[in-house]
Structure formats: structure tokens, C-alpha cells
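Supplementary Data S3. Sequence and C-alpha cells for construct A.
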Amino acid sequence: MFDVGFSELLVIAVVALLVLGPERLPKAARFAGLWVRKARSHWNSVKAEFERDLADDDLKRSLRETQDMLRDAQASLRNAGTGLQQELQGAGDAVMRGLPAAASTADSSAEPLLPLESSRNLPGELPAGAHVAHPESADESRSEEQSMHTPMDEPPPPDDADDEVPQR
């Protein structure tokens, strides 16, 4: 900090010895040491307080950014919820007016729609075991059911080779 070397310290000690004398020099050295310690402690406390303020500012900035992200997420969730409500309202209106033309052309063997139980389900959730039959996928689901039925599901034919063989 002050860039003081050994030779400069030696010159300062000799001058202090000449000015103060050998009786007062130890007392003056203790006094100077006390002031140096106080100055260092004050400097360290100011430095620590400054670092705490910087950390507080960082935390405040981070908190502000997190709050902004939460507000954005909340707004997008509200928009999505509004969109879902509008779609649900449109679907309810369509059901009230009657099934659309595509649904009336579907095969009558398709599974019926089960009503939603709003008291036990979250919005957009179907009750347990509920199936939604889509008119476009009715033919596909029938073909999938037929392809899932394999000969392994049937019992094997009786085997005549297991009959008793006459012994000789």
C-alpha cells in the first residue's frame, strides 16, 4: 500500500529513537500499534458492510427477476385457462345444439361419452375409467381391437397324440 521497505523502516526507527528517546519509544510504539489496529478494524467493518450491501442488492435483483417470471407464468396460465374455458364453452354449446355432422356419421358401436363429474375432477380431467370416443378414430380403434386379438388368446386345440398308446 505505502510500498515501505526495510531500509525506510530502519530510518523511521532511528529518527523516532532520536526524537522520542529510549524512555518514551516503547510507549509511543504501543500507541501507534493501537491506532493501526483500530484503523484496520474500522476498514474491515466498512469493507464487510459494503460486501453485505452488494449481496443484498444481488438478492433483491434476483427476487425481482423471480417475481417477474412468476407474473409472466401466471399471466400465461390465465390466458391458457381462458382459452380452455372458451373451448369448453364451445364444446358445451355444440353438445347443446346437437352432435356435429362428423359425429352423426360415426358408427353407433363406438363407446359413448361419459359425463364429467366436476366435483371430483380437476378441469380438463376425465373421471377414472372414462373413454372419449372420437368420430375420426372410431374406425381406427375397431381395427386396432381386431389386430390385438391373436390366436394365442384362444385355447389350443386338443392333441390326439396324448392318448394312451397300447403297450406291446
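Construct B, processed identically:
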Amino acid sequence: MKGEGATVWLIPDGYLPPRGEGPLEGHEAICLLNTGERDAHVSVDLYFEDREPVLGIPVVVGARRTLHLRTDRPAMLGGFEIPRGIPYAIRVRSDVPITVQYSRMDTSQPNLTLMTTLGYPVDVQEGSSLAG
């Protein structure tokens, strides 16, 4: 079975919130769902307002599996540490169709906030590659 989704997803509003004072830790997650029969070889690109992008962070999502990339855990992003409190954007590219959701928990205030949204799927022509 071919997986559902798209091969390119955009999330324009990334923001790793500052740490709060309470027991919960503010964080984001890029949630990847692969419903297909093949592993998804994914490339995560991070774009910033004031610095060069970080391109090509490799991630593998197993066939018929999900993966929640916590952006506050550098080990999940190839060792790259996203700065807290700095707006950025995310592009996710995959060699097979996947679905991408983005979630953020902001605990920097006593009234914490949790938000989630689907990424924006981009139509990509058959046969395009992660190289571009």
C-alpha cells in the first residue's frame, strides 16, 4: 500500500518557547506519520530570520510508524540545538508520502498554552528528490 500524505510539508511558525518556572517543560514536536509499507527517509530543514538555514537533518520514520521529533532534544535533530525564543520555520521532505503535524507547549507563563496544527502539504511532481 502506498502511504497517505505528501512528500513536502511546510510549517512557517516554529518557535521553541523559553523554559517556564513550573514542572512542565515547554517544547515543540514535529509529528511524522508514515502509513506506507516502506521506511520514510526524511530531511528536515530549519529557516531563521537572522541566520543561514540548517538544511538536511536526516530522520527515518519506519513503515507504518509514527515519530515525534522533540525540537528541544538536539539528539533528535542530528545534534543541532534550536535556540529558544527565536522564530523559525520548518520544511520537511520525504522520499515517500507522509503526514506532518506540529505541536507546541508554551509553559513560560502560569497559564500554559498547547497548540497543534497540520503542516502545509506541497504538491511535488513524481520523481523529485530530496536533493533539491
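Strands lie at 6-15, 27-34, 40-48, 54-61, 65-70, 87-106, 113-118, 120-122. The CA atoms of residues 35 and 64 lie 4 Å apart.
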